[in-house]
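Hey team,

Filing this mostly as a record. A colleague (T.K.) asked me to run one chain through the structure pipeline before their review meeting, and I want the input and output archived in the tracker in case anyone asks later how it was produced. No errors, nothing strange. Just documentation.

Input sequence:
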Amino acid sequence: MKKNSASVSTPEELYFEILRYLPVKSLLRFRCVCKMWRSMISDPSFVEAHRSRSAAALLFSVRDKSSRPWKYTLVSVKNGEARRQPAPVLSPREIEFSHRHISQSVNGLVCIYEQYEVDYDYTRQIPSPRLLVYNPGTLEHVTLPPPTAFTDVWLWRRCSQSISLGFDPSTNTYKILREFMYGDDRYYDIFTLGGGGAWRIIEDKDRPVYGLTRKGICVNRTIYWANSIKLVGGEMRQNVIIAFDVGEEKFREVPIPPATRTWWGEGWGRTWNMIEIGGDLAIVDFHEVVESISDVMTMWKLEDSVYGIWSIKRIVLPEFCTSSSRLPYTMRRPFMTSMDGDEITLIPGWLFKDWYIFHCNIEKECGRKEVISRSPEDDWNWRDDAYPSIPGVDCFDISVYKESLISLSEICSL
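Output structure:
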């Protein structure tokens, strides 16, 4: 049903061209207009045409640190406005879902999942952390079953996990890769949506023996992680990049960019990020700006993952991005991502009532500041117990997504 916008001649083709510019929320309602519209809106060619022209949006996981245990909320930012994202509706018998982490988005889908806030006195029984695949556009979600291994509740109390979403376009298959971290031990298993409903342990001899970063980036059916590992017998660290082929389910190392500073630090210690930009993998280093050494950030873009060929670009940031008098402390170690192929977006780690994000054009080396408003009904007057006088919310994780009509129920029924 793929249509050419240059030769629209029938009512059906005209409807196709008009409807693909509408938001997902409207299209979900319009499926009830008639059988023809329902069939068209559900057709894979329309789903892809709609997603390809959808504007990028941001999805935040923010936490209220004044409550115990900490509560996490999803917030979406579209067209300069921040709104609370409706939480997935779970079974009434389930305890409240605390979506602490968000995976990278793939075709409009994300994984949202829990981690333990460890209850050291062991006074309450905690189930294994839950994992959902979620479409923030349609609000549809699928709850994945618990892992087949390491299900002992006491082990889970001492374990953390890292989740990455991958996609293999050659088979149109979505897979979820999970890393278990228990002390110095690492374990990996994988789940295929619509593939029988069970986790499979990965026995690949080349699987990493050290921890991956929290968020993997899926580009061209390969999930990438960048990290620095501590060398045995000392405090020196070594940069590594790990790739996982989603189709073959194999790990391998990727040669790192030459002469790179050690990638170290997460959370407020972060001065670098791995991002997808224009369909390519890139690593962006913000260290010189953070340390007031210069107004330049460095970007390495992966040109060939087999031979480790990288291109490098040093990007001079505009003054409003680097001036200490203008740059709030929340932007000195920002989240970094890309909402299109021409810009790098810098996002603060603490969101106030009135806040903004920076967009830096890579080629033109110019920038713009986008002021973000929030809906009046949203109460953002949370306070960090460490900074009780400052109202705002702590941004814990982010993901860029495009609104998509992809149906999780259809994927899981295949």
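Quick notes for T.K.: The radius of gyration is 22 Å. Residues 186 and 211 are 7 Å apart (CA to CA).
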